[in-house]
UniProtKB/TrEMBL annotation:
Domain of life assignment: Bacteria
Keyword Ion transport set for record: no
CDD domains per record: CAP_ED (cd00038)
All residue ranges annotated as the Cyclic nucleotide-binding domain in the record: 23-114
Signal peptide as annotated in the record: none
Domain HTH crp-type: 145-218
Pfam families, per database record: cNMP_binding, HTH_Crp_2
MF annotations from Gene Ontology: DNA binding; DNA-binding transcription factor activity
InterPro entries: cNMP-bd_CS, cNMP-bd_dom, cNMP-bd_dom_sf, Env_Response_Regulators, HTH_CRP, RmlC-like_jellyroll, WH-like_DNA-bd_sf, WH_DNA-bd_sf
Source organism (scientific name): Exiguobacterium chiriqhucha RW-2
Sorted UniProt keywords: Activator, DNA-binding, Transcription, Transcription regulation
Protein name: Crp/Fnr family transcription regulator
Length: 236
């Protein structure tokens, strides 16, 4: 069983070039340093965003007060919530994970564009459908196959986003810490450390200070019952 590495596209591919250009022309762009909060969980955030450069993470606080990373977006991604209620609070906190340039357009302006432009409305609907599917797959990872399945799926998504095939396996150049992996699957760092150590002993993967090599993709796919989701969905 094989997988396509490094093939995940920015989610802007859903929009036509004309629609994307229209949105960018109407946006206000701002520089954000690493660690800046774009929006807090629970506050009103009536904006639709575009990440020109950099990266952001969507986090949600658990009952114990720890942060669970729900989504990660990078350059050329759109992000934001289309609420059915004007005052519905944001579901997540949005924080930059590197120096970023982010554009935004107000929800009111988006609503007006959708009313005027049938093609744009169709493409926005397609984009929201893809985001819904991404949310469903995240919940699948977290709930259905235990922490080993969630970790296996996370590693596969990392490979789909940034992996490079080599003679030894799939090389993932951005190797997060066990604590960061724990935030992605809702597990303590110690739990992730035990699983990663076991998989290293079994020869399923190796790690260095800068990269991770996945030697047995089939093993990971079996753990998480991989459904082979398309490149637009197979991402963190």
């Amino acid at each position: 069983m094989t997988m396509k590495c490094g093939t995940t596209k920015p989610n802007s591919f859903v929009f036509s070039q004309e629609t994307k250009q229209l949105l960018l022309e109407m946006m206000t762009f701002q520089d954000h340093s690493k660690g800046s909060i774009v929006c807090w969980e629970g506050e009103k955030c009536n904006k639709f965003f575009y990440l020109k450069s950099g990266s952001v993470k969507f986090t949600k606080l658990t009952k114990k007060g720890s942060a669970l990373i729900m989504f990660i977006y990078g350059a050329d991604d759109f992000f934001g919530e289309f609420d059915i209620d004007e005052v519905f609070p944001s579901s997540y906190s949005i924080e930059t994970t590197s120096d970023s340039v982010i554009g935004w357009i107000s929800k009111q302006e988006m609503d007006e564009l959708v009313r005027r432009d049938a093609q744009l409305a169709t493409e926005v609907l397609r984009w929201t459908s893809m985001m819904r599917k991404q949310s469903e797959m995240k919940l699948r990872d977290l709930l259905l196959y235990g922490k080993p399945g969630a970790l296996a799926s996370t590693l596969l998504r990392m490979a789909a986003m940034d992996g490079v095939e080599s003679a030894e396996g799939i090389v993932v150049p951005k190797h997060p810490s066990d604590g960061e992996l724990g935030q992605l699957i809702g597990a303590p760092r110690e739990t992730v450390n035990r699983m990663m150590n076991q998989w290293r002993k079994e020869g399923m993967l190796t790690t260095t200070g800068t990269e991770m090599i996945l030697h047995d993709i089939d093993f990971l796919k079996e753990l998480c019952y991989c459904e082979g989701c398309p490149a637009g969905i197979c991402r963190l």
